[in-house]
Automatic annotation (TrEMBL):
Superkingdom of origin organism: Bacteria
Source taxonomy: Bacteria, Bacillati, Bacillota, Bacilli, Bacillales
Source species: Virgibacillus chiguensis
Name listed for the protein in its UniProt record: Hook-length control protein FliK
Length: 543
């Protein structure tokens, strides 16, 4: 499940201030609350109660489909039918052709109380008609989001949201970075991508220094083993840490396989290392096959460098022991600590650099008549005109992703409501993929987000506790926090950092009123958890 699909869990659309005024032609479903004289009725539309003029025979308490006929000082509605009216009948009234997928889209829109108009449905149907049934199901939630936000339904917007919902941004940027040729034409883009994805030289140097001290106090064979497992990868990068975690997480499987390899080859490896036996070519080939099937790099790293069968034996024996994996975990924890020095500052720096380098304000600057700086987006646009094949496709994929971030980055509504969204590749911070942040709340007189009354939602993919949503409500500077996660231990997550959080918020004149924990996915019981829970190891990130 992608983190973008959590809006229903958080019920963002139902809890927020209405994002738009009703417009002529829109179709909505509402409940009749009261009937007044002179053909006026009070109708409940989601969180709104409105009085409208309506010439129809209605029943109090029932739900009806309405079409907005006039939306100025006097709201006039046309009743299309009651809740028994099915999607096919509604499409007939709108003079639209019927199809199974089209009816399903209408059913979902009305069920989720998303208003729509005939033109939006027609555009969505035309786009969906290009695809077969299975593909249509993929694009169904995208059509709903485009309609709900009144965004244009085009190939560009549809592909942008498709990329955002199904492919992590960080992964796409990494893939592009690895595909870029080494020549000077791509040097600036490589530099910008590296800036967003990789730790700074200062952090790496600090980590290397501390790592060296650590390894000098421990078994240096572990350091050699890490180099063999990673086959020349940067020892201090986030990618390396994630690769090593794969060995730690699946340590029992690796221990069993190392044990099987040694049962078959240990005696001959010992004799060969002591120059008392010589492997035949067939034996070397079979040994290589057995080892690389489980540990892809250590055979080439040892035997490929002068035939060091003794070194291979030592490393296989190490991989056979559970203590080795415990040492790996200690080293990773230590390394991450120094890679993530002052995470608050790193988070702020990364956010600023993303805003500067990504180019999400590219079109806005052009509209203002300003010349946009050279950004990732401007380079992608330029390179696409002269790049074909796989690289060209990857350039387009990243560009689609940037378009998706732009679509929902800032929405400034007339009713005093502001909404902002950021999706930041967070590998540089030690997180697995992306960090998504959504802000919404009232606007101040200077058109900024009101810090006294707002809502901030963090969408995180964390290394230890996986998919996590932190939903923070600010009301009159009182903060309540809801944490959504399916990790078993997160239900009893300790509040060992709660005093620190309360203190930090108090220094900024905020008051922490509550923290609650809930299951993330449907079907799992959402349980509220008290403050004084058990201790928990493996906190991924703190700001």
């Amino acid at each position: 499940m992608r983190i973008h699909q959590l809006k229903e869990i958080l019920q963002l659309n139902k809890l927020k201030i209405p994002s738009q005024q009703l417009k002529k032609g829109q179709i909505i479903q509402g409940q009749v609350i009261k009937i007044y004289p002179e053909n006026k009725v009070q109708i409940q539309l989601g969180g709104l109660r409105l009085v409208a003029q309506l010439q129809a025979s209605l029943t109090t308490g029932k739900y009806y489909y309405f079409q907005v006929m006039q939306a100025d000082e006097l709201l006039k509605l046309k009743a299309l039918g009651n809740e028994a009216l099915n999607a096919n009948q509604l499409l007939q009234q709108l003079s639209l052709k019927m199809a199974t997928n089209q009816a399903e889209l209408v059913q979902q829109l009305t069920k989720e109380q998303i208003s729509f108009n005939r033109e939006q449905l027609q555009q969505a149907f035309e786009y969906m008609s290009q695809y077969k049934d299975k593909q249509v199901q993929v694009f169904m939630p995208i059509m709903k989001e485009l309609i709900a936000n009144e965004w244009p339904i085009t190939e560009q917007t549809t592909k942008a949201l498709h990329m955002q919902k199904n492919y992590p941004f960080a992964t796409q940027l990494q893939k592009l970075l690895h595909m870029l040729p080494k020549d000077s034409n791509f040097s600036m883009l490589r530099g910008h991508l590296s800036d967003l994805l990789q730790p700074t030289a200062e952090n790496i140097a600090n980590s290397q220094n501390q790592m060296g001290k650590l390894l000098s106090l421990r078994n240096k064979q572990v350091f050699s083993l890490i180099q063999s497992l990673l086959d020349g990868q940067d020892l201090y990068s986030s990618n390396t840490i994630n690769n090593l975690k794969h060995y730690i997480t699946n340590n029992q499987w690796f221990i069993q396989n190392a044990d099987q390899i040694l049962k078959k080859w240990e005696s001959k490896l010992l004799l060969t290392a002591a120059n008392q036996y010589m492997f035949s070519d067939d034996e070397v080939s079979q040994l290589k096959q057995d080892v690389t099937k489980v540990f892809p790099t250590i055979f080439a790293k040892n035997v490929g460098n002068g035939g060091d069968f003794g070194g291979l034996l030592v490393q296989l024996r190490a991989l056979q022991k559970s203590q080795t994996y415990e040492q790996l975990e200690q080293i990773i924890t230590f390394s991450q600590k120094f890679l993530l020095t002052e995470p608050k500052e790193q988070f702020l720096q990364l956010t600023k650099r993303f805003l500067q380098l990504s180019g999400i304000s590219h079109e806005n600057l052009l509209v203002k008549g300003e010349s946009p700086p050279t950004t990732i987006k401007s380079q992608l646009i330029s390179m696409l005109q002269q790049t074909k094949g796989g690289l060209g496709e990857q350039l387009q994929q990243v560009l689609h992703h940037l378009h998706a971030v732009q679509l929902s980055s800032v929405q400034d509504f007339d009713n005093g409501f502001l909404q902002a969204y950021l999706q930041i590749p967070a590998l540089k911070l030690g997180l697995t993929n992306d960090m998504e942040i959504k802000f919404e709340g009232k606007k101040t007189e200077t058109n900024k987000l009101d810090p006294n009354h707002c809502r901030i939602v963090f969408y995180l993919e964390l290394t230890n506790i996986k998919e996590t949503v932190v939903d923070m409500h600010v009301q009159n500077r009182n903060i309540s926090i809801h944490v959504f996660n399916d990790h078993i231990q997160s239900r009893t997550l300790p509040m060992q950092f709660q005093p620190l959080l309360k203190k930090g918020l108090k220094e900024m004149n905020y008051h922490l009123s509550s923290i609650s924990f809930f299951a993330l996915h449907q079907g799992k019981k959402a349980k509220k958890v008290a403050f004084n829970a058990q201790s928990y190891q493996g906190v991924d990130y703190r700001i």
